[in-house]
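Recall that a protein's primary structure is simply its ordered list of amino acids. Everything else, from secondary elements to tertiary packing, is in principle encoded there. The following example makes that idea concrete.
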Amino acid sequence: MPHLTTYIGLADRSEQTLASSLRAVAEGHAHIADVFHTCRTLAEWSDANHEALAPVVERYGEAHDVDEPERLQAAGLAETRGGEIGLLRDLQDLHVLATLVQTTWTVIAQGAQGLRDRELLSITEQANNQTSRQLTWLNTRMKAAAPQALIVAP
């Protein structure tokens, strides 16, 4: 199961990266109450998904040579941007990262079905549901931020 361990490692690291990126956006845009509080809540969900993986990591192991989430974080979320357009771009970066997380959980779910691993399948379903909710909020918040960012003069 060497490829499963690669995806377990990717899920583990990308959830951590998403959580830290959500916290960075919360802090960077702390003057916007809904962004601050919601991003912190969404980060807690990613923390919980990461923690839920612990027994799976113990059972199957994880490969640590996967660096895609770190590249995304380093490229876009190491620090936040200012202003309305900065918020929009930061939300978009979070969306890209959350999409990586969701597709990773989807792939792991397929592996769990093939292995008939009910515990892993349950973890993937919960994590996928949480990530879907994160993506829904990000989409909604980007729609709310776009008019101000795109058509109102700074």
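Residues 71-76 have pLDDT under 50 and may be disordered. The chain has one domain: 2-151.
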